[in-house]
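Hi R.,

Here's the chain you asked about this morning:
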Amino acid sequence: MPAEPTSPEPAPCPSGPAVRTVTAAGRFVGDGRFLADWIADTCNCPRLAWRMFLRGFTLQYRHSALGVVLAFAPVLLTALVIALGRRAQLVAADIDGVNSAFFAAFGILLAQAFVEGIGSTQRIFTGNAAFLKRQAVPIETPLAAAVFDLVFRDLVRIAVIGVLMGTFAVPPSPWLPLAAWAIFGISLAGGAIGLVLAPFSSLTSDLQVLTRALMIVVITTTPVFWVPTPESALGRLQAANPLSWAFDAVRAAAYGAPGSLAFAACLPAASLAFFLVGWFACRVARPHLLERMTGQGG
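And here is the predicted structure, written out as tokens:
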């Protein structure tokens, strides 16, 4: 009998791009590639994160003629009010050797850097839940977009500080670039706190409500508007607050006020270490939080 014809062997499928599966499984099970995946996700996120930043920036300021300048209106208003109070002899003329209006406006800028840092990362889950679920992107993408926004705002702050120093004739210190470096450290410290709070804020709105009043706490416990006497209760509180040390360090680097230049130099590195802790917590919590927030796995 003639041999039955044999069907040809199927051609091998061409290799395509690697498929990455995102699940709600524990992050430390399997082949133990947690750190490698973390590095890979970080390297792959900048382009999409930049697009997210530009989209958020456009949506936020699209209908505003003054744009981002409005965010710094409280600084200018503070300087005006203190200047009027200084003229009416209701406010001290000078604080640490500079105009009290300049001192207060500078302090408001530093307080904004810290508080906005917290808010930008605290909403990393609640503000991007649909995007994270639908696109199955890693947490690094919205996180990098938030960092881009913080850097942009800090650059604007530095420009505003330059305008204030020229307006109030405050001579800059030779260490002025160190002040810009330390301002970024303050924003990064706030961002680190926001990351630690982010998993809890995604489950309850109480923390977000409390952080809205944080500016009042910062103004009270740090030298924003004035420097209390060291013997007073407020003076002792501010002396024990690390954020006060950071504000004094920035002022020391900017125009030679009392403060530690070494603290200004080390602040961003310490903030980055704390930031990594919060980043790690958010990366571990991401799949479980999205499962609870959306009622689905992934």
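One quick note: The first helix runs from residue 34 to 44.

Cheers,
M.
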